[in-house]
């Protein structure tokens, strides 16, 4: 497994749990030292225990010696970062192609080189060209095996997937991949074999569709507010239709994270370059960016048009609960705008504060608990729906806060109970 980041570490640990011998190659010295010490570089529920158990069993190891790691392997998974390229929105494949060349130099026999990173259509073909140019004598195949892991539930998604998509063209490569995923055959998980280009596109299409559902319900929430309707009833009413489904119909401040923003933008650029622009995806990107930027205005409106000098307690900074990921989190533009407009912000997040510090304005203060964050606050703003925030007692909040305004950007609180405690409540799509 080339790369000990989110995808590589979770996938490697899960493959080891399946019984495979997995060697994770990580070149970042600090990250590698942490892994050797048993410290996870990311927060993912259950990952530390899964890694520790498989390290003790001898099925999982970490190192930076690529040649040693590739000795005798049957498959090499490339799981390095593919960040958005500055200036044009395309996925930056620098690390992927560098890994492919290094793998080609180090392999001693046949292996399947598998892209686990999210890569644009055509990447597998280019990897094959790089390998041939580097080692004309090497016997190999290239495959695409995109991941569909939800942060916060990644281990469960890997162990009990909705599907596994494998793009491979030779029967030899398909057989290697079948053996790797054999434990999933036993639970009858769908294994979908396709061409390489198709597998590469599946990942982008899936994330774009889910991002589109999130954006759709957010726009319906705005409409509900104008018409006096309830977006949760609308979501339930349409979600019970089997053709639509209930998942990803939860209104909020817009999507963030490591996948949706990056992948929708990349798919948009891929489609434009191919001469088949995806107008729906383009709209999703534009609407979501505007929504995140506009959420601060809801807070400002709830404060009577100005937050200057207001003490604001912010609960939740990560883009979703059960992760420490701050990438494209809605909290970033919201908090930045509030500070810019003169608010005094104190924030609390169970896992993301260390990651948030370099990304948020220096003026932001950080609390050790949720109640500490809202103590003396004029306004409570909930951005991320961590479970521990759901049970906060309205009477206790009223006793701790100086003001009586709650802006709930995830609709986790009962408006009637909040108002009964004397608060002015502002949610999303509750007309």
Commentary on this structure:
The protein is an alpha/beta fold and 431 residues long. The protein folds into 2 domains: 189 residues, 3-Layer(aba) Sandwich (Rossmann fold), CATH 3.40.50; 138 residues, NAD(P)-binding Rossmann-like Domain (Rossmann fold, 3-Layer(aba) Sandwich). 45% of the residues lie in helices and 12% in strands. The strands form 4 sheets. It has a 6-stranded parallel beta sheet. It has a 3-stranded parallel beta sheet with strand order 3-4-5, sandwiched between helices. α1 packs across α3. It is globular. The mean pLDDT is 95.
Give the key terms.
single chain, 431 residues, alpha/beta, Rossmann fold, 2 domains, 6-stranded parallel β-sheet, 3-stranded parallel β-sheet, 19 helices, 13 strands
How do the strands and helices of this protein lay out in sequence?
Layout: H1 6-17, E1 22-25, H2 29-36, H3 47-56, E2 60-63, H4 66-70, E3 75-78, H5 94-106, E4 111-115, H6 123-134, E5 140-144, H7 154-159, E6 164-167, H8 171-180, H9 182-185, E7 191-194, H10 196-227, H11 231-239, H12 260-274, H13 279-302, E8 311-315, H14 331-340, E9 344-348, H15 353-356, E10 365-366, H16 370-374, E11 379-382, H17 387-390, H18 394-400, E12 405-408, H19 415-420, E13 424-426
Parallel strand pairs: 1-2, 3-4, 4-5, 6-7, 8-9, 8-11, 9-10, 11-12, 12-13
